[in-house]
Specification:
3-oxoacyl-[acyl-carrier-protein] synthase 3, alpha/beta, globular, about 30% helix, five-stranded mixed beta sheet, 14 strands, Peroxisomal Thiolase, Chain A, domain 1, 3-oxoacyl-[acyl-carrier-protein] synthase activity, fatty acid biosynthesis, about 325 residues
Length: about 325
């Protein structure tokens, strides 16, 4: 990965906007249950594609790479509300690529790590030279505001990395899989086909069995981590899981026996669960905090709807603090 760039919508939503099942203080209730304090909500002008464009431009600026050098664009998303065309084609055009291959990838909250694995293989086999991998989600219109257990968890945003050639493996072998038998754990209230047959029904919104997802994640993710660690003895400096909620992250970290020196990403507290965008957003935050550095080896794992998962070791890319203009670049990463 050569660089990372992000976009967070400016509307910051605090816990006070929500209600709780027992009419208790929403901030205290949500902090205790999820660790989340704020999340970003996209505006009417924000789309999956426009947020992806903003993140992609930032990543290109950081890498010092022109759009003409990008030959493939992959957008990981579950919330692009057009069946066709793909968001990636719009992104490729808007950033100024020249006939780049472009496609969307849908794997829920593990979409980014799935897309990263595809990009790494494209570059390593010579099919592509520079691939933009973007996780972009506009989840908030897909939520039921009356669902007090689900709606407060989620936010919107986009994160992008530029994958390019290197003299060493900066993206490790992926460990991935799925369990479609549990697909009902994260789904939507009705199918689009059912809604189109009966327009008097409510449009589909996100539906999630939170306790079931928690139990599955804290059992599965440590197994994925063990598989990845068994294939290498490299020193891991950072752990960046999908930012589902703080309780899941803490439970996974406790059960994996990672050394206490490993920095654990905690962007969920400020951004909520942003699905496929959560890992690149958390990567940016971790780098900005200086808890991890460019070139450090990080373990990233995405997990969620499907139920699907994917994880790999990566070398952390170059970045610019979000407060700095993107006219200059951080020292270039080497992987």
């Amino acid at each position: 990965m050569l660089s990372v760039g992000t976009y967070r919508p400016p509307d910051v939503v605090t816990n006070d906007r929500f209600r709780t099942p027992d009419a208790s203080d929403p901030d205290l209730w949500l902090r205790r249950r999820t660790g989340i304090t704020t999340r970003h909500y996209a505006g009417d002008h924000d789309t999956v594609a426009s947020m992806a464009v903003a993140a992609a431009r930032r990543a290109l600026d950081v890498a010092g790479t022109g759009a003409d050098d990008v030959d493939t664009v992959i957008v990981a998303t579950s919330t692009h509300m057009l069946c066709t065309p793909p968001a990636a084609a719009e992104v490729a055009y808007e950033i100024g690529t020249t006939n780049a291959a472009a496609f969307d990838l849908s794997a829920g909250c593990s979409g980014f790590t799935h897309a990263l694995a595809v990009a790494a293989d494209l570059v390593s086999c010579g099919t592509s030279e520079h691939v933009l991998v973007i996780g972009s989600e506009k989840l908030t219109p897909r939520l039921d505001p009356d669902d007090v257990y689900t709606a407060p968890l989620f936010g919107d945003g986009a994160g992008a990395v530029l994958v390019g050639p290197s003299d060493r493996d900066g993206i490790g072998r992926v460990a991935w899989g799925s369990d479609g038998g549990r697909r009902g754990s994260i789904t939507q209230t009705i199918t689009w086909d059912d809604y189109l047959r009966d327009r008097t029904s409510r449009p589909p919104v996100l539906a999630m069995d939170g306790p079931a997802v928690f139990r599955w994640a804290v059992e599965l993710v440590p197994q994925v981590i063990a598989q990845i660690r068994s294939e290498t003895d490299v020193e891991i400096k950072a752990f960046i899981p999908h930012q589902a909620n703080r309780r899941i992250t803490e439970a996974i970290a406790r059960s994996t026996a990672l050394p206490p020196t490993v920095a654990v990403a905690d962007d969920v507290t400020m951004s909520g669960n942003t699905s496929a965008a959560s890992i690149p957003l958390a990567m940016q935050s971790l780098l900005e905090s200086r808890a991890a550095a460019v070139g450090d080896v990080a373990l990233i794992v995405g997990f969620g709807a499907g139920l699907c998962w994917a994880g790999q070791l990566v070398e952390l890319p170059a970045f610019l603090p979000t407060t700095e203009p993107s006219t200059t670049t951080e020292a270039k990463a080497t992987a």
